[in-house]
């Protein structure tokens, strides 16, 4: 669910999944190493389990570590 603040700016959403990724959803500004900037709405999955081979991003390795009983 998107929420707009009093300025009409959409509030970003952060969702932390148990034993999984931290999901950031909202409007982000991306800056390249040469300083070029773009802004776009995006969803970013950061590793919350510590086992990703592509940190800081989730590479879905957490799915392999599920212990089933
Ligand atoms: S949360 Fe760590 S690999 Fe997905």
Major pleated sheet = 3 strands, antiparallel
Number of domains: 1
- Please state the oligomeric state of the protein chains shown: single chain
SSE pattern, N- to C-terminal: EEEEE
Low-confidence regions: none
Bound molecules: FE2/S2 (inorganic) cluster
Helical percentage: under 10%
C-alpha Rg, in Å?
A: 15 Å
**Which descriptor suits the 3D outline?**
flat
The helix tally amounts to 0
Count of distinct strands: 5
Strand order of the largest sheet: 3-4-5
Summing up helix and strand content along with how strands pair, one would put the structural category as: mainly beta
Mean pLDDT: 87
Strand content: 35-45%
Rounded to the nearest angstrom, the distance between the terminal CA atoms is 34 Å
Write a short abstract of this structure:
The chain contains no helices and 5 strands. It has 69 residues and is mainly beta. The chain has a 3-stranded antiparallel β-sheet with strand order 3-4-5, with no helix packed on it.
Please write out the topology.
Blueprint: E1 3-4, E2 10-11, E3 13-16, E4 22-31, E5 37-46
Antiparallel strand pairs: 1-2, 3-4, 4-5
Q: What can you see in these coordinates?
A:
The protein is built from no helices and five strands. A three-stranded antiparallel sheet has the order 3-4-5, with no helix packed on it. The model has no long low-confidence stretch (mean pLDDT 87). It starts with a strand and ends in a 23-residue tail after the last strand. The protein is mostly beta strands. A hairpin with a 5-residue loop joins strand 3 (13-16) and strand 4 (22-31). The protein has one domain (11-65). Helices cover 0% and strands 41% of the residues. FE2/S2 (inorganic) cluster binds at residues 20-21, 47-49, 51-52, 58-62.
């Amino acid at each position: 669910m998107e929420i707009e603040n009093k300025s009409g700016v959409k509030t970003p959403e952060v969702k932390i999944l148990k034993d999984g990724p931290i999901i950031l959803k909202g409007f982000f500004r991306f800056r390249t190493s040469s300083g070029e900037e773009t802004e776009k709405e995006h969803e970013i999955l950061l590793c919350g389990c510590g086992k990703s081979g592509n940190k800081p991003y989730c590479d879905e390795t957490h799915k392999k570590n599920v212990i089933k009983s």
